[in-house]
Design brief:
OB fold (Dihydrolipoamide Acetyltransferase, E2P); Rossmann fold; 13 strands; 43% helix
């Protein structure tokens, strides 16, 4: 026999109930009774229907996120899991979401999906991209039977006829609508569009359910280009509006946001023209100034100026050389005249002209001393008019 303590039994029951994962992610439709919020912030109450009841707990962290807590007698739709309180051996339902029953299960699921997508950051404003100012191709994803389609096409043709419009038709209502919208979006993404409009005309809230579908929302969030949603009326808001780059209150408004009016384009073109004209004039002015500066620099450094300066230098040097040569020649002439005068003074011819003679021996030596010659020796006497050969008879010392 295997004997358990109460603690062992309750621990085993808790492990079975909470460990198997069989009683997680549950929705209950019930009436709230015995609701009480304690100073700790936790809320304890009972959920019951006509046949049964279960204790429930709403922990403080969850209770603080709920805008309006239920009161006794409220019919509610709660989400949570089964828990087991070991100390008293009691089952309890641990609540993490609670909405009025009138909202319905669909809205509760929608709230849950919204919270999950928001936690992933898909609603972050920093993800949103600006619309292209001049889209060349605009894709429209909507139903061919939608009355809003013709309105959008008319607006686009009137406001911005330069854009090419590509229609990617889809279902916008019914069970097949989510898959149809996803396929249409993926199809238009491959068409090299600059902008996408996802639109549907007005209808009851349940008619817009496809635009709250998780796959549709994620496909919109994954758009490679900016996307505008125009779903329903101005008061209608869907999850695709939260992830789109821009939400328009209506399909017609989406078309107006996508297409800049021609008047605005003309103003922008005129402004660009004016800016371009000013820029060109300013550039031409700067170019003229640069050309003038280069021309002045070229004039200062022109080869003709260099050649003319060199020619002037050569002429000046030539004149100075001429004058220097003249002075040198005159000095040389004066010096030559002086030398000639001295030469004339020292010349033997001058001596001979005065009646003297030069005696030379046969070997050419000039006789300057009687001891150089002997009697009978032949000498040559050079006189002014010529030469005379003589014989020495005797010498006198």
């Amino acid at each position: 026999m295997h004997v358990l303590t109460v603690s062992d039994l309750n621990s085993a029951l808790r492990a079975h109930l909470e460990g198997e994962g069989l009683f997680f992610d549950l929705w209950l439709l019930a009436e709230v009774v015995e609701f009480r919020r304690y100073p700790s912030g936790h809320c304890y109450f009972t959920l019951k229907d006509e046949q049964a009841s279960i204790r429930a707990v709403l922990w403080r962290g969850v209770a603080e996120r709920i805008a309006t807590l239920p009161t006794n007698g409220d019919a509610v739709l709660v989400h949570g899991r089964v828990g087991f309180y070991e100390a008293r051996g009691e089952l309890q339902f641990v609540v993490d979401q609670i909405v009025p029953a009138g909202v319905g299960l669909l809205n509760a699921q929608l709230a849950q999906l919204r919270a999950r997508l928001e936690a992933e950051g898909l609603f972050d404003e920093r993800r949103k991209r600006p619309l292209p100012p001049l889209p060349r191709r605009i894709g429209i994803v909507t139903s061919l039977q939608a009355a809003a389609l013709q309105d959008m096409l008319t607006i686009l043709r009137r406001r911005y006829p330069l854009a090419e419009v590509l229609l990617s038709p889809c279902l916008v209502q019914g069970e097949l609508a989510p898959a149809s919208i996803v396929a249409a979006l993926r199809r238009v993404y491959t068409e090299a569009v600059d902008l996408v409009i996802l639109a549907r005309g007005g209808g009851a809230s349940e008619d817009l359910a496809a635009f709250n579908d998780e796959q549709v929302v994620r496909t919109v969030a994954a758009s490679p280009v900016p996307i505008i949603t125009g779903v329903g009326h101005e008061t209608d808001t869907t999850l695709v509006d939260a992830v789109a780059d821009l939400r328009a209150p209506t399909p017609s408004a989406a078309a107006e946001m996508a297409a800049p009016p021609l008047t605005e384009l003309r103003q922008r073109v005129l402004a660009l023209h004016e800016r371009a004209t000013v820029a060109i004039i300013d550039r031409l002015h700067r170019q003229r100034q640069m050309v003038a500066q280069q021309h002045a620099l070229l004039q200062r450094n022109h080869p003709h100026r260099t050649i003319e300066a060199a020619r002037q230098t050569v002429d000046d040097l030539s004149r100075r050389a001429g004058r220097a040569f003249g002075r040198w020649l005159q000095l040389e002439q004066t010096r030559l005249q002086g030398l000639q005068a001295r030469l004339a003074t020292l010349s033997p011819q001058a001596t001979l002209a005065r009646g003297y003679a030069i005696a030379q021996q046969v070997d050419g030596h000039v006789v300057t001393d009687p001891a150089q010659v002997q009697a009978g020796e032949a000498l040559t006497l050079t006189v002014r008019a010529g030469r005379v050969r003589v014989i020495v008879e005797h010498t006198d010392e």
